[in-house]
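Q: What does the assembled structure look like for these inputs?
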Amino acid sequence: MSDAPFKNPGWAGNTGEFDLTEADVRGTEFVGHRPPEGGHPAAAPSYPYMLADKAPDAPLFEGPYKERLEKIRGRYPNARAVLLPALNLAQEIRGHVSPETMDAVAEELGLASAYVRGVATFYTMYNKRPVGRHLIQVCTNISCNLCGADEVLAAFLEHTGTEMGETSADGNFTVVEAECLAACGFPTCVQINSRYFENVNEADVPQILDRLKSEEGEG
Amino acid sequence: MAYPYRHEKEVRLLSEHFGDLEARTVEGWKARGGYEGLARALEIGRERVVEEVKTSGLRGRGGAGFPTGLKWSFMPKDQTRPHYLLCNADESEPGTFKDRELIRWTPHQLLEGCLIGAYAIGASHCYIYLRGEFFEATQVLARALEDAYDANLAGKDVLGSGVDLDVTLHVGAGAYICGEETGLMNSLEGRRGEPRIKPPFPAAVGAFGMPTTINNVETLCAVPGIVKNGGDWYRQWGTEKSPGTKLFCVSGHVNKPGNYELPLGFPLMELIEDVCGGVRDGNALKAVIPGGSSVPIMTAEECSACSLDYEGVVECGSMLGCASVIVMDETADIVKQVRRMAYFYAHESCGQCTPCREGTAWATKILERIEDGRGTEEDLDTLLQIGDQMTGTTICVLSDSLAAPVRSSIEKFRDEYLALIRRGERVGAA
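A:
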């Protein structure tokens, strides 16, 4: 442990007594490359990523994704239980879950279209319309709120030049308010696609946006 | 020292290896005494495993504090149909941030707990229901699970015992209510995460209509140590009725927020003043929410003699919940924070029960009006009345969870509401 506060690039802040790298904290080095076909069947339902590159018209459940869906099916006693993993998979490919996507999932699983829509619209993580390359979700719930989350949210909106929930003109950013992300000791917590950025204060915001712009195709 | 803050008063049974990278690997976990609990469980048999956990007095760490061994003993003994263990990793109670740390730093601790738990209740399949937002932690767990399968710690004929134990990671999609155990079961089944009426209880009719036990991540993480060292070993920490250690998630206005593992019964003020380095900027303490946003708020005075165990916090007028201690200093704006909580519950209400669906939205509107300086004193009576109608009248306790902070804040911080209502004066900055 060094005496100087360690500036952890993944956590944007410098509180705490870190001597870990960002890859250590995020676990990316340990996790390694994750195959699109889902790896071991036990873990196959756990692979939904939020990718910057989205293919809203891409076919669902083909090639490696078909393989992953079959692995997922094998882990549940009925087709209905495959619904959430299948919707996750669809969103990973297309970036959002349109009514047409819901219908396609319904057909694949042999469920009623109206039923799938009813389920999909219950859950907030299914984007019902397209979002930017980077979906920025700022927690403004109580613990983050006590430590300046409203200002962090305002800074993201200001620096991306967007209104809440709208996508920036260049298609890069969508900023929304999120409910508690379970990182309350590291306020403010901001989820950007698949990653958490913690201990974010309003002054960190331009730096984070620059970093996102400089990363190609990052999850 | 690797991980945010540690303190000499901690008893780190579960959190010893936070920030220790080798603990994420099978070999590293074994080198730290891991999977000995699983081996012992398979050796002594499921009934003795349940007995050890009963002896330990371990209570559910997800909020309700129900004795884990007792819960396991409710599972039917017959093996004529599948039994399921569900691990609740849908951590989403505002103020709580322990499960994600347990998953991403000690994935094998959780897997070992799941395997032992599944074995103990006669389940051959455990689903870990992970919060959808936990992409990073989930990938760490996924890798660890693949390693566990490769090492024959999961799957067919675990460790040559003849017992099959499967674990599947299931990822949710963003709904607070799925942390409620019956909502979680519905969500796992591919339905809307709407809680079910009990009875029937999950041990009789649970996931997929089969006998099911649902345990929190932290509960299952405590199990390997108990099975390995015996139930009496665990009782050397904590109190008679609340044995063992607990991860306290401290957030808000303290100098050193973070997870601290302490024996149950630890004094609240010592946690804030000593372990967490005191209230930030030397400010005065105003209020504490000791168990996540669903429990009654406590004044600084009520905190002074409070001990952090399930009974001790109840005596001081609140609940331990999942031990998520949210600290507010003198600059905190109570009305704003209660309004923010109300907004959260209104957003997350599943909408099945009228008192909750209507009550959370109505309370939010009134609180927004008060915060804007357009409230009346009668509004406070209305809020209390709504709170009464929201308590004990619904399928699950989400409704009660908003009523508690609303009622307690009006009773204990009425002056702050009145300052806004009468003079438009806002107390506090945040």
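The longest helix of chain A spans residues 83-94.
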